[in-house]
Design a protein that fits this description.
By secondary structure, the chain is of the alpha/beta class. The protein is built from 8 helices and 10 strands. Strands 6-7-8-3-9-10 form a 6-stranded mixed beta sheet. The chain has a 4-stranded antiparallel beta sheet with strand order 2-1-4-5, covered by helices on one side. The longest helix has 16 residues.
Length: 262
């Protein structure tokens, strides 16, 4: 497989089928091809069972595809050993989960530092610095049960950034948060996008999907809309990845204007 030089993550004709029994096969991904570039916030949306979480797991090398290739930062992973896949995952990908997955007996700072315990980390950032970046400098010594849901998710995001990966994969990062707290997480994800991170987010949150650069729609293991034509980078009247709002073009009047209107 060949990689797109501008892409940080690519899926090429990826297929994944779960064999529940001798008679029951469930195809979760049916020849999915996608490309993600640096500094892009992309949401994955679709009904339950559409393949969203499988797509995220295969993209993050947590699950093996049956066919096709996943190319991470220019490196094909299809033929890699489990040890090599772990290396790529550790160096290139950070994960954020809906349920936070923090260790309850550790402080926020200790949770963020957990990825540093497993081998050399030349690009690692100090845990205290990361917590300050997500607005929790004064809460670094608190355990998870002493933090709000939004604060716990910020700790989880800081932990995902500990090794400075170019890619963040997020599975329903605001699924357990109220709307006001979720909005704060959306702002933080936007900051990471403007810093050049690539964020792929499975979500049911309409607000997050609205502010994303593009929103990929899935159904029955296939991509029904890759969001390319609706990219926020070129859409007038929306903020681009540089954070600047592009002015909306005036709508044309008459029949021609109605035909061009979305």
């Amino acid at each position: 497989m060949t990689s797109n030089g501008s892409a940080v993550l690519q899926l090429e004709e990826v297929r994944r089928t779960y064999h529940l029994s001798r008679a029951v096969d469930v195809p979760a991904l049916r020849g999915v091809s996608l490309t993600f570039v640096p500094g892009e916030l992309v949401t994955i949306v679709g009904p339950s069972g559409s393949g969203k979480t499988t797509l995220l797991n295969v993209s993050g090398l947590l699950d093996h595809q049956d066919a096709g290739d996943v190319i991470v930062d220019g490196e094909s992973t299809g033929a890699l050993s489990d040890r090599e896949r772990t290396r790529v995952r550790r160096e290139k990908i950070g994960f954020v989960f809906q349920s936070f997955n923090l260790l309850p007996h550790l402080s926020a700072e200790e949770n963020v530092a957990m990825p540093l315990r497993y081998g050399d980390a030349p690009k690692a950032r100090p845990a205290a610095e990361l917590l300050a970046h997500v607005g929790l400098a004064e809460r670094r010594l608190h355990r998870p049960d002493e933090l709000s849901g939004g604060e716990q998710q910020r700790v989880a995001i800081a932990r995902a950034l500990a090794l400075d990966p170019p890619i963040l994969l997020c599975d329903e990062p605001t699924g357990e948060l109220d709307s006001e707290t979720a909005s704060g997480i959306h702002d933080l994800l936007g900051e990471l996008r403007r810093a050049g991170k690539t964020l792929v987010v499975v979500t049911h949150n309409e607000e997050l999907a609205r502010i994303a650069d593009r929103s990929i729609h899935m159904r029955d293991g296939v991509i029904t809309d890759d969001g390319a034509k609706r990219s926020r980078r070129s859409a007038p009247g929306h903020k681009g990845s540089d954070g600047k709002r592009r002015p909306a073009k005036p709508k044309a009047s008459g029949t021609a204007g109605r035909k061009r209107a979305r």
